[in-house]
Specification:
Low-confidence stretches: none
Order of helices and strands: EEEHHEHEHEHEHEEEHHH
Helix content: 25-40%
CATH superfamily of one domain: Thiolase/Chalcone synthase
Radius of gyration: 20 Å
Number of helices: 9
């Protein structure tokens, strides 16, 4: 098999505690303003289809101290932390999970940390410098002269951009080995807000890290290409902005409609550039951005039942922003 740019095994790192659907609803009730009904919150959780979420800020007794939410069955006294407090929590958990995922990826790759020449990190849920990349270098034992690139604040498609950067570095030289690390701590941005898109984002996102090594090799899945496109007149449909009390999500209800109208043509063109067609693809990895997004992708591409079988668990997964490669 010829050497091409390939992905190594993917290592993941999850927080130790899970937020069940029932507990997630309790936390949502504690954080929601008084004018948000329990019926609305229950409906959003039911429609999400998510069974559980890994949550870095969840304490062992079920409390969420960052927001002043007490343990299960205890009294709740919710607080709204400022962005600075949220970034302190982000740094603590992001560093730990990124290191764990990186160690797993390098061990599975079969080459030592001293052979890593480039480090590409991606995250959109926090900023910290010296941050995740520097902590990975020190803790994992990467060379002091490893070349670092950070893909920041690019949301749910950041992993595609991180892999594109890694692919370019790996293709430059057979000696290049690129460690790619994505880490997100979305739970530090739970909002006390009555806006529907903020309530939805409180129910969808989770925490975790994933890492892999990209290099010229003759085994493993080939990273043949990456691609992205912009849908015209959609700049205000989705957004992620820094506010005084965390990062603020804008999520327009028309996102699935835009996908249905634009995704098939773009996918067909992108695959045709590789000599492929939709029918030739044996399985699809779809970003779990909520059931309506998943349905829009499946229906617009007319994916067959046998190709849906391999994605059966996607609908019950939380969104992990950059970790869930579209």
């Amino acid at each position: 098999m010829r050497k091409t740019v390939r992905l190594g095994p993917i290592a993941v790192a999850n927080p130790p505690h899970r937020l069940s659907t029932a507990r997630s609803l309790e936390v949502a009730r504690a954080l929601a303003p008084d004018d948000v009904s329990t019926t609305v919150l229950t409906r959003l959780h039911d429609r999400s289809g998510i069974e559980h979420r890994n949550c870095a800020i969840l304490d062992g007794d079920g409390s969420v101290s960052l927001y002043g939410v007490g343990p299960e069955g205890g009294e709740d006294d919710p607080v709204v932390p400022g962005t600075a407090a949220r970034m302190i929590a982000y740094a603590e958990h992001a560093r730990r999970l990124a290191i764990e995922a990186s160690v797993g990826a390098i061990e599975s790759d079969g080459h030592g940390p001293g052979e890593i020449t480039h480090l590409v990190t991606a995250s959109c849920t926090g900023f910290d410098a010296p941050g995740v990349d520097r902590c990975v270098i020190d803790a994992v034992g990467l060379p002091a002269d490893v070349r670092r690139t950070h893909v920041g604040f690019m949301g749910c498609h950041a992993a595609v951009n991180a892999l594109a950067v890694a692919r370019a570095f790996a293709a430059e030289d057979p000696g290049h080995r690129v460690l790619v690390v994505c880490v997100e701590i979305s739970s530090v941005h739970f909002h006390r807000d009555q806006r529907l898109d903020r309530l939805i984002s409180n129910t969808l996102f989770a925490d975790g890290a994933a890492a892999t090594v990209v290099a010229l090799d003759d085994t493993g899945p080939e990273l043949a290409t990456t691609a992205a496109t912009i849908i015209p007149d959609t700049i205000d449909v989705m957004g992620w902005r820094i506010g005084d009390h965390g990062f603020e999500m804008t999520l327009g209800a028309e996102v699935p409609d835009h996908l249905r109208a634009n995704l098939p043509t773009w996918i067909e063109r992108t695959l045709a550039d590789q000599g492929l067609s939709i029918e030739a693809i044996g399985g699809w990895a779809i970003h779990p951005g909520g059931p309506r997004v998943i349905d829009a992708v499946v229906e617009s591409l007319d994916l067959s039942e046998n190709k849906l079988t391999s994605m059966a668990g996607i609908a019950t997964m939380p969104a992990l922003t950059s970790l869930n490669v579209p």
